[in-house]
Amino acid sequence: MVSADFRHSPFLTGHHRPNRMEVDAPDLFVHGELPADLAGVFYRNGAEPLYPPSDEDYHWFDGDGMVYAFFLENGRVSLRNRWVRTDKLLLEMKHGRRLFGVHGNPRTTDPLAEGTRYNTANTNIVIHGGKLLALMEGAPPVELDPRTLDTLGEETYGGVVTTTFSAHPKLDYATGELLNIGSVARRGGTAPEIRYDIIDSEGVPTKTETIPMPHQAMMHTFFVTENYVVFPVTPLDVSLRRAMAGGPMVAWDPDRATKLGVMPRRGDAAQVRWFETEPRQMMHEANVWEQDGRIVADVAAAEGTALFPDIHGRRRSHRETRQSLRRWTIDPGAATDVVREEILNDRDIQFPRPDDRRMTRRTGHAFANSNLRSVDGRADGMDSVLRVDTRTGAEDLYHFGDGAAAGELIFAPRVGGVDELDGYALTLVHHAGAAETELVVFDARELAAGPLARVIVPFAIPSGFHCNYYSVDNPLYRQAMV
């Protein structure tokens, strides 16, 4: 039996309080008017623990994956949400209680879980190769039915991907390829490695390369351009040995530099060149491309993190580790291995995104979240959304009000639209103490003008992670929905 008391964890209360339920809503109320040329599906993944741990601190990143699907067409919206039924979740459902330690910590994992993979599938949700895939860093993707959200099982690409898979694989619309990394820990003191995969438009791996890693780090993202791939290794250190000794398994090491491994996109490990910059926490980028022979990466970065303690167990505040939108420039032909950094926008920023169809090619806009009322220790998310013109620095911002929690803001092209801002911007918003959640639709060019429409969900959806939108005329949508 699970207690209704979720203790006092910041990740189990407020905007994070889990619903622990699955819903089918065939026709949601809409305030305003949905544009006729907004037709497709909006997916969002996030953590909804069915069985929160009772004897150790819960972390937001640890919850079971819950996928929400909003189907938009003809001015109407239907909703369905389902847990991703990983082997982990099915085993815990069988026994009716939590079995795995937080982040799969073996020191606090029940012996009943031995032989079952720790896979939460809670971080991202993407379509590629005709399949809808729920993703996390530490395990293979889990395939879901794109309409019913039924779990179909792990996708190992014919046995090529049996360990880790990125929560942020990169889709190159120009080639149809999905590029992926996996950070692979090795036992017995052997150096950790990065596995790099190229998967063609039909979901068939065409290249796999293994690259030695400077140290075992939490690699949440990586960069891809038309001709290069870049592996960011930050000071966010992962140590099983430290965890077994009672310390944090994931911790910030302030004495480590951030290292960026640059390799030709179809190259090999011998061609990797490591560039270096000051210690930076970076989990998300807006876009990365090549310009005048250089690699340009627009990223959300800070001088540390409040999400995890340091290697001594100390935590820094949100105010001390506010992220800003920064541009990192790497010159693969330079004699020095230095990364140049400049700040594009100094707001408290997170989850920057481009028009996804232009990833790996130059863009001029970043959609993102911001927090106008920064609060130390806040775990509830961001209260504003904005668009930054990354060429001029001009911003277009909308504030939902103090205490609101806005999810990742993404661009949703209108049906038939091809230009970078020719469409809409979507986000999920929960207002403090509200019984409802809203799927908010903006004109992508005029966020400050306020929502065009608000789709009302009659319950509070907990703060989540990443989302994606697929228009009905997107080839990925057509391939998956046939």
Number of strands: 33
CA-CA gap between termini: 41 Å
Secondary-structure class: mainly beta
Tell me roughly what share of residues is in helical segments: under 10%
So how many helices? 3
Strand percentage lies at: 35-45%
Radius of gyration: 21 Å
- Main sheet: strands, sense, barrel: 6 strands, antiparallel
Mean pLDDT: 92
Instruction: Give the CA-based shape.
Output: globular
Query: Would you identify the regions where 5 or more consecutive residues have pLDDT less than 50?
Result: none
Describe this structure in words.
The chain has helices spanning 87-95, 240-244, 475-481; strands spanning 23-25, 29-32, 40-47, 65-73, 76-83, 124-128, 131-135, 142-144, 151-154, 170-172, 177-184, 193-199, 205-212, 223-224, 228-233, 236-238, 250-252, 258-264, 273-277, 281-291, 294-302, 324-330, 340-345, 349-353, 365-370, 384-389, 395-399, 405-406, 410-413, 423-430, 437-443, 453-457, 467-471. The two termini are 41 Å apart. The protein is globular, with a radius of gyration of 21 Å. A hairpin with a 6-residue loop joins β30 and β31. Helices cover 4% and strands 39% of the residues. By secondary structure, it is mainly β.
